[in-house]
Structure to design on (163 residues):
């Protein structure tokens, strides 16, 4: 990914409903909520992000994923200890393109090349400063025509394996 991926015009300027879900409560969840709301978006919480209690990551990802796929939420920010389980479970929901991201460059790339609609993060790896950088890249980078062929091919693979 070159600099051109970061300079893509902002696509997400309108206020959105963002599904925020976590399997267990971490202090950074409140930072994420605040940062999302500061951008003018509405947070729709699931799991520990809603009630502060631990919840199974697979079920939380499914609930929040269905909200995004069904249109009740526009996008999602999902968290678990590693980020891996929540991203795997979210991607089981038809219509979800969840990307496990570790830094701002990965967030921008997930938008440009994968047209991701769910950002998955690791509680274990995430600081407040890193959360701010990643969310800025996520919300300030739009889907790009350069990634359309890959997104279309991914949809075809998904369709071949859905029953």
């Amino acid at each position: 990914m070159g600099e051109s991926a970061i300079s893509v015009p902002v696509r997400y300027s309108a206020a959105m409903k963002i599904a925020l879900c976590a399997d267990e409560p971490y202090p950074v969840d409140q930072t994420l909520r605040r940062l999302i709301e500061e951008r003018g978006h509405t947070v729709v919480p699931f799991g520990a992000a809603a009630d502060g209690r631990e919840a199974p990551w697979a079920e939380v990802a499914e609930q929040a994923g269905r909200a995004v796929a069904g249109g009740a939420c526009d996008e999602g920010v999902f968290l678990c200890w590693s980020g891996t389980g929540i991203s795997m479970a979210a991607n089981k929901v038809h219509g979800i393109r969840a990307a496990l991201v570790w830094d701002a460059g990965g967030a921008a790339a997930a938008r440009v090349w994968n047209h991701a609609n769910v950002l998955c993060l690791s509680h274990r790896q995430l600081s407040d400063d890193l959360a701010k950088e990643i969310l800025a890249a996520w919300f300030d980078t739009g889907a790009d025509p350069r990634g359309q062929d890959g997104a279309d091919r991914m949809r075809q693979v998904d369709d071949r394996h859905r029953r």
